[in-house]
């Protein structure tokens, strides 16, 4: 289960993803990432099934 202090970053530019992940983590947020929307939807479906 994902709590309210979790964000998901979707971007195909690794530098942008890392910048957002780093700064968000420093603020106490849990961060997951995906390189594109297709991967994000796959992960959401898996999470719903489990």
Total number of helices:
2
Unreliable stretches covering 5 or more consecutive residues: none
Number of domains: 1
Major sheet: 2 strands, parallel
What form results from the Cα inertia axes? flat
Strand line-up across the major sheet: 1-2
Strand content: 15-25%
Rounded mean pLDDT is 91
For the termini, the CA-CA separation is 9 Å
Approximately how much helix is present in the residues? 40-55%
Secondary-structure class: alpha+beta
Q: Measured on Cα atoms, how large is the radius of gyration?
A: 11 Å
Order of helices and strands: EHEH
What's the number of extended β-strand segments?
2
Describe the protein in words.
The chain is built from two helices and two strands; from the N terminus they run βαβα. It is an alpha+beta fold and 50 residues long. Strands 1-2 form a two-stranded parallel sheet. The longest helix is centred in the middle third of the chain and has 13 residues, at 14-26.
What order do the helices and strands come in, and which of them pair?
Elements: E1 6-10, H1 14-26, E2 30-34, H2 37-49
Parallel strand pairs: 1-2
Short description:
The protein has 50 residues and is an alpha+beta fold. It is built from two helices and two strands, in the order βαβα. The longest helix has 13 residues, at 14-26.
């Amino acid at each position: 289960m994902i709590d309210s202090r979790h964000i998901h970053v979707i971007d195909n530019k690794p530098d942008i993803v890392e910048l957002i992940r780093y700064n968000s983590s420093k603020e106490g947020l849990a961060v997951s990432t995906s390189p594109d929307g297709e991967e994000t939807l796959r992960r959401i479906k898996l999470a719903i099934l489990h």
